[in-house]
Amino acid sequence: MEASAFSPSHITGFFEIIDEQSNPLLKGSRGAGICLSKGVKTYVKIKKSSNPALKVSLNGRTLESTKLTRYVVNSFLPKNDRNYSFFVDYDVKVSIGSGLGSSGACALSLSLALNEALGMGLSKVETASIAHKAEIKCKTGLGTVIAETYGGFEARVKAGAPGIGEIMQIPIGNDYSVACLSLGPISTKAMLSDEILRNRVNEAGKGLVDRFIAEPSPENFMIFSREFSDSLNIYTNRMKKVLNELDDHGFKCSMAMIGETIFSLTKAKEAEELVKIFHKKARSKDQVILCSIDKEGARIL
Known about the structure:
Layout: E1 2-18, E2 28-48, E3 54-58, E4 61-63, H1 67-76, E5 84-92, H2 102-118, H3 124-138, H4 144-150, E6 153-158, E7 166-170, E8 176-184, H5 188-192, H6 195-214, H7 218-232, H8 237-248, E9 254-255, E10 260-267, H9 268-281, E11 288-291, E12 299-300
Parallel strand pairs: 3-5
Antiparallel strand pairs: 1-2, 1-12, 2-5, 2-6, 3-4, 6-7, 8-10, 8-11, 9-10
Helix pairs in contact: 1-2, 1-3, 2-3, 2-4, 3-4, 6-7
C-alpha cells in the first residue's frame, strides 16, 4: 500500500492566538497569509508486518521518528490493527523552521497520503483535522493547516481545525509572486510557550485581523504584516540590517511568522528585482525562494 500527497507551504503575515479551549480542534489562530507553490511532497509505503516499525526520511536523509509524524501515524492506527510498518518520505522544498509552514505541510500531506494508502475513506476535511490536531498537540503551529488545506491568499476569520474554523479566500491575480529570504530557524514551540510574547502577539494582532478582513488586498496584507512584525520586534540583527536596506530601496517586506525569514507578496517584476538583492544577502541559493501562489491547496498526487 502506497500513496503520495502534496501540501503547499504557507506564510502568515500577522495573527492572534485563540487557544483557550481544551479541545484542540477548537484551538488555532485568526490571521492572514499566503500559500506557496513550493511545499512538501510526502510518499508513504505501508506493509503488513509482525514487527511494526516507523521509518522516516526527509530530503533523502534518514530521521529519527519525529513527534509530529508519530502523532499523525498513530491517529490512523486505532482504525486498523497495529501490525503495520510505515515508511514516510518527506520531500521538502522550503527552509525548515523558518516560518514557511513546513511542519503543517508535512502533517497535512502525510495525513492525506495515509488516508489514501489505507483506503480509510475520510473526507479531506476529516483528514486535515488530524493534521491540525497534530500541530496543536506538538506546538508546531496554530492556523497553518487550515490555510494549506484550501490554498490561496486567505484571512483566517474563525480559529479552529478545517470544518470548524473559517477562512475567507481573497481573489488575487496570477501576476503576483512571493519572494523569500530565509536566514535561519526560530522555534515556533518556544515562541508559543512564551507568555509575554503571546500577549504581545494578541495585542498587536487582533485589531489588524479585523482591519484586514474589512479591507483585504495584497497591499494591505504587506502593510499590516510589517506593522505587526515591527510591533513584535523579534527581529534578529541580520533581519534588521536587511529590512532597513530593503526599506531604503522602496520594497515592502516583512517577517514570516514565526521564522528568520523576510518575505514580500508583490507583482512578479518587482519580485524578480527583490530576489536579486536576496541572493546577495544569502549564504546559499537554497535560502532564496521565488514562487507563485498555490491556489489548489493540499491534494493527493
